[in-house]
Design goal:
Radius of gyration: 20 Å
Number of helices: 4
Mean pLDDT: 87
Order of helices and strands: HEHHEHE
Structural class: alpha+beta
Low-confidence stretches: none
Shape: globular
Largest sheet: 3 strands, antiparallel
Strand order of the largest sheet: 2-1-3
Helix content: 55-70%
Strand content: 15-25%
């Protein structure tokens, strides 16, 4: 095998390794669930504070939570989403990582 073919094979192996480590299986959703306790304003303010949503984004998510029963408010690895989930739960809002 020539040096150039070895180089391309090594580069291909690196790309495959990167693809494997960032597969869709590693991506989870932080889901906020509807309840009869929290106000729209509280949920919106929590999403702005915790997830760094824009006011518009937080309002849209809150409307989805209200009308659909739940909404994915953030994506990431399970480990990365744990503190976000805890902060939302600490505000009295139901949230799970799926």
């Amino acid at each position: 095998m020539s040096d150039i073919n070895i180089f391309y094979q090594l580069e291909e192996d690196k790309r495959e390794e990167v693809l494997e480590t960032t597969s869709d299986e590693d991506i989870n959703d932080l889901i906020v669930y509807n309840d009869d306790v929290n106000t729209f304003e509280h949920v919106i303010n929590t999403l702005i504070k915790v997830c760094k949503h824009t006011p518009e984004q937080a309002e849209q998510c809150t409307l989805l939570v209200h009308y659909k029963g739940k909404c994915a408010v953030k994506k990431g690895s399970f480990v990365d989403l744990i503190p976000y989930r805890q902060a939302i739960v600490d505000e009295g809002i139901n949230a799970e990582i799926e």
